[in-house]
Write a structure and sequence with these properties.
The protein contains 6 helices and 9 strands. The strands form 2 sheets. It has a 7-stranded mixed sheet. A hairpin with a 6-residue loop joins strand 7 and strand 8. The relative contact order is 0.13. Bound molecules: S-adenosyl-L-homocysteine (SAH). S-adenosyl-L-homocysteine binds next to strand 2, helix 4 and strand 4. The site of S-adenosyl-L-homocysteine has 23 residues, from strand 2, helix 4 and strand 4.
Length: 213
């Protein structure tokens, strides 16, 4: 079995273990198509397809494939959707969202990571991903509203600017909690009437959302 197929199988097994309903096949297909090894540093390439987080330098990590799949599934991305990602990191999550046909806007606070991610995204031909350096907690007002928002760093609370920039009917996946402590993956849904509802999905562990230095 190929590394890719094994990764998909592990994601499916992990989904069953957590008692979640099954993931959208389109999400699994996107994860099979995106070359994860193109987004990890050289020393991590042999392990690129394992279901574990990988260090990408600057004390940051790319999430394990199961968590990427789950967050992507939760926000229910359709082709043509405008999706904001906070925390570009390696560019992998952005690539998966783009593989689903989304127009992706991704913000990274560490310039060196943003640059490496940009190069990897270009090398993989992901032209539908726009990137920029900045504080993702402020969102990307010029490109708002977004059909979906994926935040890949943990905050103590949902940044108000992100709620504002979510379109009515839109969905946001965000880890809430403090660094090094237990955090919860939260799904935020904005109703057509603008009302916001949240539900807790799963305990997770993410690096913190930080202020630009
Ligand atoms: N989605 C990434 C994983 C990101 S790890 C991937 O697929 O590889 C979390 C990232 O969030 C780190 O790169 C970190 O530098 C970034 N980050 C932390 N605080 C941020 C902020 N305020 N704005 C934008 N990015 C931030």
């Amino acid at each position: 079995m190929s590394d890719r197929d094994r990764m998909i199988q592990t994601i499916e097994a992990e989904t069953r273990k957590t008692g979640l309903t099954s993931l959208n096949p389109a999400v699994l297909d996107a994860m099979r198509r995106v070359d994860r090894s193109a987004f990890v540093p050289d020393d991590a390439k042999p392990e690129a397809w394992a279901n574990q987080p990988q260090s990408i330098g600057h004390r940051q990590t790319i999430s394990q494939p199961f968590v990427v799949a789950l967050m992507t599934d939760l926000v229910d991305v359709r082709p043509g959707d405008r999706v904001l990602e906070v925390g570009t990191g390696s560019g992998y999550q952005a690539a998966v969202l783009a593989a689903l046909g989304a127009q992706v806007f991704s913000i990274e606070v560490i310039p060196a990571l943003a640059e490496t991610a940009r190069r990897a995204l270009d090398a993989q031909g992901h032209r539908s991903v726009a990137t920029r350096v900045g504080d993702g907690a402020l969102g990307w007002p010029e490109e708002a509203p977004f059909d979906a928002i994926v935040v890949t760093a943990a905050a103590p609370a949902v940044p108000p600017a992100l709620i504002e920039q979510l379109r009515p009917g839109g969905r946001m996946a965000i880890p809430i909690g403090y660094p090094g402590r237990s955090q919860s993956l939260i799904l935020v849904e904005k109703g057509m009437d603008g009302r916001v509802e949240s539900q807790t999905i799963l305990p997770v562990m993410f690096v913190p959302l930080t202020q630009p230095i």
